[in-house]
Amino acid sequence: MPTTRTPAEAEPRTFSQALRERSWPLHDVANGADFINALMEGRISREGYTALVTQHLFVYEALESVAAGMRDDPIAGPFVTDDLTRAPSLRRDLAFLLGGADAVDDLEPLTGTRRYADRIRETAQWPGGFVAHHYTRYLGDLSGGLAVGTIVSRTYGFEPGGDGVRFYHFAQIPKPRPFKDAYRARLDAAPWNPDERDRVIDEVIAAYGMNTEIFTELGAAHPATPAVAG
């Protein structure tokens, strides 16, 4: 549903601020999903965690397949960098979690994951939409995602940054804050008119909604348990 603003609402100073402020309520809903809360409390089985990694693989393979075609785009191209690429790490994590690389090719996405990946692929014809999903995924990974990786490592007894949690390790971005600041500066410099900026924000909000749907499906398939022993 498109977002609305009342005349009394003050417009934030920059586009990146507007994006963050208008999408934050949906961000909170996604990150507050029962499945994610249970994961952070160490109450999701290893099978449940593996299911989460599986959904990530389908999402990031879709996103990075679109990114490959966006490198030369004048708007989306500046956001594309190999330093963020996650799909190879996810495949390594899943090969470890499932006991072999062959098992990864037999995986199937959840219904919500398939819908999300299809939505991302549709942005191959819309640079602003691609940037919306790129922002939602990668800046989240470089923020709360790093904390998730630390907790998951402790819960399941994985080596930090090693097999099972390589997804959360950005070897080429040792200092996330400067990277995120530069990313937001690119958002602010992008030559979007006000209507396109609203469309991008609405797409970010839609992405958070689709993430929440995936977490709901995961929670139904993998209910929380007592704390998992590391």
UniProtKB/TrEMBL annotation:
Matches recorded under Gene3D superfamilies: Heme oxygenase-like (1.20.910.10)
Coiled-coil residue spans: none
A GO molecular function held by the record: heme oxygenase (decyclizing) activity
Residues that bind heme b: R20, H27, Y135, R184
Keyword check for Ribosomal protein: no
Pfam families given in the database record: Heme_oxygenase (PF01126)
Assigned keywords, A-Z: Heme, Iron, Metal-binding
UniProt GO BP: heme catabolic process; heme oxidation; response to oxidative stress
InterPro entries according to UniProt: Haem_Oase, Haem_Oase-like, Haem_Oase-like_multi-hlx
PANTHER family: HEME OXYGENASE
Entry protein name: Biliverdin-producing heme oxygenase
Organism, as annotated: Jiangella aurantiaca
